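CORE FACILITY INTAKE
Project code: CF-77B
Contact: R.S. (postdoc)
Sample description: multi-component assembly, two entities in total
Requested service: structural model of the whole complex
Turnaround: standard
Below are the sequence entries exactly as provided by the requester. Do not edit them.
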Amino acid sequence: MEKIESVQNARLKQWLKLENKKGRQQQQAYLLDGWHLVKEALRAGIKLKVLLLTADFRYTAEFTALTDPAIETIQISTAVAKHLSGTATPQGIFAIAELPSESLAIPTQVHGAWLLLDSVQDPGNIGTMVRTADAAGFSGVVFGQQTADLFQPKVVRAMQGSQFHIHLFKGDLTEWITKFKQQQITVWGTEVSPQAKNYRSIKPQSDLALIMGNEGNGINQQLLSLTDQNLYIPILGQAESLNVAVAAGILMFYLFQAD
Amino acid sequence: MEKIESVQNARLKQWLKLENKKGRQQQQAYLLDGWHLVKEALRAGIKLKVLLLTADFRYTAEFTALTDPAIETIQISTAVAKHLSGTATPQGIFAIAELPSESLAIPTQVHGAWLLLDSVQDPGNIGTMVRTADAAGFSGVVFGQQTADLFQPKVVRAMQGSQFHIHLFKGDLTEWITKFKQQQITVWGTEVSPQAKNYRSIKPQSDLALIMGNEGNGINQQLLSLTDQNLYIPILGQAESLNVAVAAGILMFYLFQAD
């Protein structure tokens, strides 16, 4: 097995560039850090370009069953692992995965529940919302054009592999809203306003689109005017607002009910 | 007004030590970064030891109305502000606040809804849960002895000032559970297990205690055996689990209903 022990190694330097959008675009790849993410990628049949393991990585039956021996596998030193990882104590397994195509066209038919993100900025919030949408049984997440890059390390860490389970699209939210309306799917905005409706007054549905907005400024006014109805979560205490990922979780688990 | 322009300033060096638990304990103080947190502290009547402002901080009527001229106020340079702040673009206002007493005794009477945290590790999750408990109208949050320090910068940022709105206790969760039981308040655990109950089958209550556990390992088995009932959130998609702060948000907003 090839070994990389120096943090000066040329290939390692290329992989470190995957931390930045430019590097990910040029190499059409992104980094998976830890067994959970690598496992989810393998289970989903995602093409891994390279697998990186430290000498003390423990091979399990599950690892052997899932891993194609044809994947290039490189042993790395602990120093190299620490260099690559965003965490203080890396698990000693990484993979370089192919970057999925970003600009998917709107499907002809959309159904089920969809989460639309308008200008959400914090990578942890974005990743957590993708994970929660997956857990809530949503069909997909659509990222408006101002939303932060989806394959940056902090988003990938927070998604916990959910990018392999549900459809992720990048696109113009106005066009997506038009599509949902054409198919008689209710579009819910979220807004702190007297015109908005308490989410608890809504009956759960099996087809819906829910829009969440920017941490500080909420959803763009023009998009809010296109929704069927805007919702709010009543605050019973003295907090001014909820974290956007928590609010999205409360709404997704409340609003969606599978057929 | 006194000015601090050098990052070598001796007082600044003391304040930088507030990033660590030892520094906070020795100085019995912690740092508030940004107008929102300073405002919440002032509104709550919290004693501020020092107020730090950059030259371009814009004095508003609200600032003037809330700020006691007797508070020591120091002008700091932009370089000093960047040094102090955990954010890339600090707002140019900080305060050094008194550290609240940590080990409060269990009140004689407890009522309302309470969140208990057992060994939660991530500071962002801890802070977000305090903020959400505040928003959901909970009476207090109890931190088990293994939970990370409450006044570290990342927790403070995520709490968004909710530490000034609801009661925060550090204590032995077993003793707290005993107290709730003595007062006939239902204690709900959270667990991924066939013995656990779907949270949606529970009727909302005006008095309750909800325990959330460690991100990887959940709640300690001994505590789980002391609850009245353990709950789970059904996962409809392929995600293995929910982020603990999102799960806490879903449960708090579902379970608690004010009288």
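Facility notes:
- The radius of gyration of chain B is 20 Å.
- The mean pLDDT of chain B is 94.
Invoice: internal transfer
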